[in-house]
């Protein structure tokens, strides 16, 4: 017991020592220990505290992650904040608060559990070894009792505050940002003059920059001297005389050595440095000597050093450390940063010491004139030169990625544009615009040569030389100005230049500089930085107050946290609204509609939304109400009015899955997530994960949600971490699941009478000011007019439009209304129906024709260029008002519609677009007779058909028309929905072709697979209705793409995919037989044969597939040689390698697939197909017995796929994770295998991975758990989930009970089926042991046996 107590006391003393050396790291360690103790207590209590245990675990993980990212855990943050007093103290304040709360939470729950078990209350332990634990600030003591929930809420908020502070911690601004006479009475001129003397050839800007940096550096060193002096005085009984200033000595005078004595060990007899560069091992460059490269060897060396110095050529090095650096040396305070250094632990030799000194002095800075980071200094060569490369030295060019152009680079956009137009005429203008803006812009890969030194003018041959050359200049200047010039100063000068010691006045003067600079560093305005800290600080303070705890921060910390935190708002009396004055650059509003200047009222709804979302981190609010109630308008107003509450506001058109998916694809581009990701589903998961981790506050607004399941997969998890929010508009308020936490519904009712008057009159007269509305002559009658339409915003806008266009007064409108209602047989007709009937009667014919056509298009975004054009095609000639040659006619037609509020003109992506309310669309379509209904649909169809890109004739997905597909597919989907919803529309071959092209676009652009299948199936049903030839080309095209899309659905669609490919092959064969001279027919037939053979591989019918591949290869050889059509040859060699593998011909298989890889890399580089072929090679190596070779290659493939897609959730990337884990299992490394399989299961569970792939990964992970006797309960659950999927498909394999083999067989051949050796060995058994069979055929109806259910290893 005594030994344990002594050990505990020793740990306590060590902790106290750590707090003295690195207080931030020590406080974090205390917090993590308290956190771990709290989590252990909550977990051990069972289900009662299950939710709180999860919250505590989440907070602990976030705090640990913060400690790692900020460098606190490694004590690096204490060093980084050595000159950032305000930021350092603020961080300490938060950690101190957190530690105190955690201690009280631990005490409280321990006492609560003890009382529940009948134990007497514990007496506080006062033994010396536990006093430290109870030594928490007094302001955490409170007589009032609080639940553990309250404490954890405060804990979560403090952790969030620390996370919000992370950008500042990663790039802290020193206390002194620039020279200022009111703080330090020092003239920076002397430093600038020193730089001018040392670099006489340098431009003025770099001279001033060096001088300013030198001045700041010397002030920082003086601060260190002062702090070290204060520490020394606090330990010493001596006190200096009152009023006598402290005599400061620079840190370089330690040991009283002369300069030559200090550097003698680092210099040769000639004065030249013989030591290697102290950063040579960090930069990765080999230090070589070139004539004239070394400062000491340049012609300018004498010019650099000769003025006023007794030595002409000297290379300075950091002075020796104060004492030995071996492990026997005692810790000492570094004279350059003031922190304690432990020899043998942090520093082992003089090279480590030199690196430490330069890290403190930060000698490196940008040498380019117009640099936004010109004030920043760097402590390491790599970070500094990386900045110069990326921001100044590397040239941004446009690169043509076409293989025939060999990565040609163009320095101007016009040159690249001319090249594409001449060499690649098939590229559409919209795609070219995208290539110019982003997809083809990158840094040049050409080496940079002949680089002039901006300090001395010497020409360096390459980047390696210029880095070393400039770095030596900057290091020498830093050592000279901070070391030699300081040594030449007199003691009297030191005393005069010393700090006054008035810390408070200094701190007060520097706070503003600190805040402004932090705002610049993180790319935000001062207001936004303060807002982040103020909001977080205010929330925590409120919770602390609720717990009866006083905030113990100093006034300085409070000022830092709250200064400027509240945004100034002003009341705009002209429109009665309160808006926030805030720069638009501070918040990103993406895809949000523009503010509606006619918006009035709704303060109750807006306040309810704002109060809930502000007080409920991670809250989901639903705006519900009848159509036309103004839900979208309220959501739009909220996104504008409370924009200051968020860093990002995203608007998602959520009526369709395609709309959600498309919105997320755009968000991916916004954050540079989508350039390398291939599939739309993968991008969705990537955006969702990014938003989960984004340490800024954001809100997603989903407009027009019909069902929760349509948007559920787009909702990020753990939104409460960054106080993110979701706002939805929906007609039904019950769309959210009842089990969903943090939900709130706001019902949107009719406008108030007062607000409806304002809306009606200001819509009729846009220039009518808000304050003038009550004096309007029709103010009272406006109330009556609004009341008859039940004060619905949509109906009111239609009344205003009718009155404005027809020039009727509101009194006349009411008379017409009464006449209409008296003659209406349907007394239950709603007001929108009535006002629709009134307004539509006087609509001109052309405007009505345009309105009819618009009702079948996507209502949110109708581009003008979709409507207006040179309509010479049959069927469009009667749309004269849309002809490009008659713009005035089109504008008049549009004015009639927008004037009546039947359509709205808005701006999207900088271009004007039209939109319609869905109720208006429904009203238009509901009033059609059969003939007009079909005619309007056909007009809309022809407009879309004219612009939607036709599918590739030979079904090649290369260079897909992304922009056209993205812009027009919502209209195709709208036409598809309209066709499916009624029998009034006649089926047509033109519609079937459009739906096929759209389905092909889904496959080529890899968007929503289910929608592509639905489009193609409808196209096929149209051909059936038209009784088209069962062997027509369009049927074969549809069947072929359906086969591809169904294959993507996994095992569930594999049999139907096989049937479709069989169908396509049969039709292609007949078409080719009818016309064998047509090259396209021949290409399509061979593609169909190849696709069918691939499906045979999935059925393990390798011999049949091999015969087809050989016949295809014979055709390829007749078409042309390998170098002309490398894709076809690569395809054959890859497919044939799998046949050879199945036959046991491993050397031949390896040779074939390697040849395929070589060809693929030649024509497309290391893209997705290259890695797919490499994956096949790795599987063949495994089957051939080369386990280590297979593992090495799988690791390379995983790395390549992560680099290619930038998305760990992408399907093939997860497939590689499984393969790597399986290989480690084969090699007996169970812990590493477990890590990979666990990550595979986690990522596959939230991505679009097929269920059979997830089932296999789960079962394999369960095996690993059981083999290591780990997580037995989880292993049972994982196995159960896997077997449920296996039972669903029930593959038959000759009565085997090998579950792993059965799960392997559910995977596609090219997608991981052969990541173990057992399956192939079973397939290769002699015929006497088993009959040939199709393993994937669902031939057996017997269920999985109980023995199989209990099995967990092969």
What does this structure look like?
The chain has 1354 residues and is mainly α. Helix content is 57%, strand content 6%. The strands form seven sheets. The protein has a six-stranded parallel β-sheet, with helices on both faces. Strands 6-5-7 form a three-stranded antiparallel β-sheet. The protein has a three-stranded antiparallel β-sheet with strand order 18-20-19. Strand 8 and strand 9 form a beta hairpin. The chain starts with a helix and ends with a helix. Residues 3-11, 122-144, 177-186, 235-313, 485-585 and 1327-1354 have low confidence and may be disordered.
Write the layout of secondary structure elements.
Elements: H1 2-21, H2 23-44, H3 50-70, H4 76-80, H5 85-116, H6 128-134, H7 148-164, H8 166-170, H9 189-198, H10 204-235, H11 259-263, H12 280-283, H13 301-305, E1 332-333, E2 340-341, H14 350-361, E3 364-365, E4 377-378, H15 381-393, E5 396-399, E6 409-410, H16 413-423, H17 429-439, E7 441-443, E8 449-452, E9 459-462, H18 463-488, H19 491-497, H20 503-521, H21 526-546, H22 555-562, E10 569-572, E11 577-580, E12 588-590, H23 603-615, E13 620-624, H24 631-641, E14 648-653, H25 657-670, H26 680-693, E15 698-703, H27 708-711, E16 725-730, E17 743-747, H28 753-764, H29 779-788, H30 793-806, H31 810-822, H32 831-840, H33 845-854, E18 862-863, H34 864-867, H35 887-899, E19 904-908, E20 911-915, H36 918-926, H37 930-947, H38 962-981, H39 989-1005, H40 1009-1025, H41 1033-1048, H42 1051-1074, H43 1079-1098, H44 1102-1119, H45 1126-1142, H46 1146-1164, H47 1168-1183, H48 1187-1205, H49 1211-1226, H50 1230-1245, H51 1251-1267, H52 1272-1289, H53 1299-1306, H54 1318-1323, H55 1346-1350
Parallel strand pairs: 12-14, 13-16, 13-17, 14-15, 15-16
Antiparallel strand pairs: 1-2, 3-4, 5-6, 5-7, 8-9, 10-11, 18-20, 19-20
Helix pairs in contact: 1-2, 1-6, 2-3, 2-5, 3-7, 5-7, 5-22, 7-21, 9-10, 20-21, 23-24, 25-26, 28-29, 28-30, 29-31, 30-32, 33-35, 33-37, 37-38, 38-39, 39-40, 39-41, 40-41, 41-42, 42-43, 43-44, 44-45, 45-46, 45-47, 46-47, 47-48, 48-49, 49-50, 49-51, 50-51, 51-52, 51-53
């Amino acid at each position: 017991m005594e030994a344990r107590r002594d050990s505990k006391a020793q740990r306590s003393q060590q902790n106290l020592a750590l707090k003295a050396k690195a207080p931030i790291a020590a406080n974090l360690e205390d917090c993590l220990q308290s956190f771990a103790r709290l989590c252990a207590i909550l977990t051990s209590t069972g289900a009662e505290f299950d939710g709180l245990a999860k919250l505590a675990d989440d907070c602990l993980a976030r705090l640990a992650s913060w400690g790692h990212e900020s460098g606190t855990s490694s004590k690096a943050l204490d060093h980084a904040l050595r000159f950032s007093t305000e930021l350092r103290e603020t961080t300490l304040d938060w950690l101190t608060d957190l530690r105190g709360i955690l201690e009280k939470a631990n005490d409280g729950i321990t006492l609560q559990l003890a009382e529940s078990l009948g134990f007497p209350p514990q007496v506080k332990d006062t033994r010396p070894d536990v006093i430290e634990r109870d030594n928490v600030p007094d302001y955490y003591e409170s007589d009032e009792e609080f639940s553990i929930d309250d404490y954890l809420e405060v804990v979560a908020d403090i952790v969030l505050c620390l996370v919000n502070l992370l950008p500042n911690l990663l790039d802290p601004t020193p206390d002194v940002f620039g020279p200022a006479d009111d703080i330090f009475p020092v003239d920076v001129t002397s430093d600038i003059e020193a730089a001018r003397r040392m670099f006489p050839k340098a431009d003025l800007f770099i001279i001033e920059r060096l001088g300013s940096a030198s001045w700041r550096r010397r002030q920082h060193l003086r601060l260190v001297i002062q702090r070290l002096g204060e520490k020394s005085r606090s330990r010493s009984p001596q006190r200096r005389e009152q009023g006598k200033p402290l005599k400061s000595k620079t840190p370089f005078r330690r040991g009283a050595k002369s300069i030559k004595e200090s550097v003698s060990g680092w210099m040769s007899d000639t004065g030249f440095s013989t030591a290697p560069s102290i950063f040579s091992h960090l930069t990765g460059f080999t230090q070589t000597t070139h004539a004239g490269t070394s400062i000491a060897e340049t012609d300018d060396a004498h010019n650099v050093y000769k003025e006023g110095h007794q030595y002409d050529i000297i290379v300075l090095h950091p002075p020796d450390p104060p004492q030995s650096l071996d492990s026997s040396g005692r810790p000492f305070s570094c004279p350059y940063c003031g922190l304690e250094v432990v020899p043998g632990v942090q520093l082992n030799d003089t090279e480590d010491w030199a690196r430490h000194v330069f890290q403190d002095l930060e000698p490196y800075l940008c040498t380019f004139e117009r640099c936004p980071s010109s004030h920043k200094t760097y402590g390491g060569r790599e970070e500094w030169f990386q900045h110069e490369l990326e921001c100044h030295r590397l040239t941004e060019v446009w690169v043509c990625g076409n293989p025939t152009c060999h990565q040609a680079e163009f320095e101007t956009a016009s040159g690249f544009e001319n090249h594409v137009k001449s060499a690649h005429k098939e590229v559409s203008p919209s795609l070219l615009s995208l290539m110019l803006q982003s997809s083809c812009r990158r840094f040049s890969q050409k080496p940079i040569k002949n680089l002039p030194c901006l300090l001395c003018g010497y020409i360096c041959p390459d980047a390696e030389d210029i880095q070393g050359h400039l770095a030596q200049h900057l290091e020498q200047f830093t050592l000279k100005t901070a070391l030699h010039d300081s040594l030449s100063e007199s003691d009297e000068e030191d005393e005069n230049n010393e700090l006054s010691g008035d810390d408070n006045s200094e701190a007060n003067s520097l706070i503003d500089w600190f805040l402004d600079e932090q705002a610049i560093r993180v790319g935000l305005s001062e207001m936004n930085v303060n807002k982040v800290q103020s909001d977080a600080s205010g929330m925590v303070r409120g919770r602390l107050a609720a717990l009866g705890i006083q905030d113990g921060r100093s006034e300085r910390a409070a000022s830092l946290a709250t200064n400027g935190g509240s945004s100034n708002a002003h009341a705009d009396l002209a429109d009665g609204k309160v808006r926030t004055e805030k720069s638009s650059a501070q918040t990103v509003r993406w895809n949000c509609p523009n503010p509606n200047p006619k918006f009035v009222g709704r303060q109750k709804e807006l306040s309810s939304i704002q109060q809930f979302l502000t007080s409920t981190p991670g809250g989901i609010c639903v705006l519900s109400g009848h159509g036309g109630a103004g839900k979208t308008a309220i959501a739009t107003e909220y996104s504008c009015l409370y924009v200051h509450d968020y860093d990002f506001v995203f608007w998602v058109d959520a009526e369709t899955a395609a709309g959600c998916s498309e919105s997320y694809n755009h968000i991916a581009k916004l954050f540079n997530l989508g350039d390398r990701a291939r599939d739309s589903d993968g991008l969705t998961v990537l955006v969702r994960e990014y938003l989960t981790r984004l340490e800024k506050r954001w809100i997603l607004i989903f407009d027009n949600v019909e069902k929760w399941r349509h948007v559920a997969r787009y909702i990020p998890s753990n939104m409460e971490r960054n106080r993110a929010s979701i706002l939805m508009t929906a007609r039904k308020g019950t769309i959210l699941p009842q089990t969903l936490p943090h939900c709130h519904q706001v019902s949107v009712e009719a406008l108030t009478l007062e607000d409806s008057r304002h809306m009606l009159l200001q819509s009729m007269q846009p220039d009518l000011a808000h304050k003038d509305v009550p004096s309007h002559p029709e103010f009272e009658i406006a109330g009556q007019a609004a009341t008859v339409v039940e004060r619905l915003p949509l109906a009111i806008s239609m009344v205003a439009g009718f009155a404005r266009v027809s020039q009727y007064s509101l009194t006349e409108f009411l008379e017409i209304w009464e006449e209409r209602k008296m003659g209406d047989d349907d007394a239950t007709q709603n007001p929108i129906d009535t006002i629709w009937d009134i307004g539509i009667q006087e609509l001109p014919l052309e405007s009505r024709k345009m309105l009819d056509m618009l009702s079948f298009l996507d209502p949110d975004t109708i581009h003008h260029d979709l409507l207006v054009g040179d309509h010479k095609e049959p069927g469009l000639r009667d749309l004269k008002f849309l002809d490009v040659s008659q713009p005035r006619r089109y504008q008049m037609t549009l004015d009639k519609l927008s004037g009546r509020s039947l359509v709205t003109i808005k701006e999207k992506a900088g271009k004007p677009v039209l939109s319609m309310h869905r109720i208006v669309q429904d009203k238009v379509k509901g009033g059609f007779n059969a003939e007009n209904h079909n005619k309007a649909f056909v007009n809309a169809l022809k407009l879309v058909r004219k612009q939607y890109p036709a599918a590739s004739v030979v079904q090649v997905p290369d260079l897909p028309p992304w922009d056209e597909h993205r812009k027009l597919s919502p209209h195709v989907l709208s036409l598809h929905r309209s066709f499916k919803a009624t029998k009034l529309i006649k089926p047509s071959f033109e519609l079937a072709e459009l739906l096929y092209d759209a389905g092909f676009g889904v496959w080529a652009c890899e968007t929503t697979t289910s929608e592509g299948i639905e489009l193609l199936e409808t196209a096929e049903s149209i051909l059936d209705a038209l009784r088209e030839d069962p062997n027509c080309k369009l049927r074969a095209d549809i069947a072929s793409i359906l086969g591809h899309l169904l294959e993507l659905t996994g095992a569930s669609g594999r049999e139907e995919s096989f049937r479709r490919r069989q169908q396509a092959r049969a039709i292609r064969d007949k078409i080719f037989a009818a016309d064998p001279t047509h090259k396209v027919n021949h290409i399509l037939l061979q593609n169909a044969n190849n696709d069918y053979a691939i499906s045979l591989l999935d059925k393990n019918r390798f011999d049949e597939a091999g015969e087809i591949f050989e016949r295809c290869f014979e055709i390829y050889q007749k078409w042309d040689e390998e170098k002309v059509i490398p894709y076809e040859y690569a395809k054959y060699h890859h497919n044939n390698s799998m046949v050879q593998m199945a036959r046991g011909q491993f050397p031949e298989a390896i040779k074939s697939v390697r040849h395929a890889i070589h060809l693929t890399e030649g024509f497309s580089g290391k893209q997705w197909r290259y890695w797919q072929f490499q994956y096949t090679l790795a599987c063949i190596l495994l089957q051939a017995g080369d386990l280590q070779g297979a593992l090495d290659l799988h690791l390379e493939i995983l790395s390549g796929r992560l680099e290619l897609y930038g998305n760990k959730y992408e399907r093939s990337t997860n497939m590689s994770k499984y393969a790597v884990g399986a290989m480690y299992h084969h090699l007996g490394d169970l812990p590493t295998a477990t890590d990979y399989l666990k990550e595979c299961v986690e990522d596959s569970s939230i991505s679009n991975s097929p269920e059979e792939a997830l089932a296999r990964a789960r079962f394999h992970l369960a095996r690993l758990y059981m083999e290591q006797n780990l997580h037995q309960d989880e292993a049972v659950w994982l196995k159960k989930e896997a077997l449920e999927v296996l039972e669903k498909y029930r593959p038959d394999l000759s009565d085997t009970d090998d579950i792993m083999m059965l799960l392997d067989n559910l995977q596609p051949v090219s997608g991981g089926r052969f990541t173990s050796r057992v399956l192939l060995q079973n397939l290769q058994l002699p015929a006497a042991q088993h009959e040939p069979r199709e393993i994937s055929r669902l031939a057996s109806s017997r269920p999985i046996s109980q023995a199989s259910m209990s099995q967990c290893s092969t």
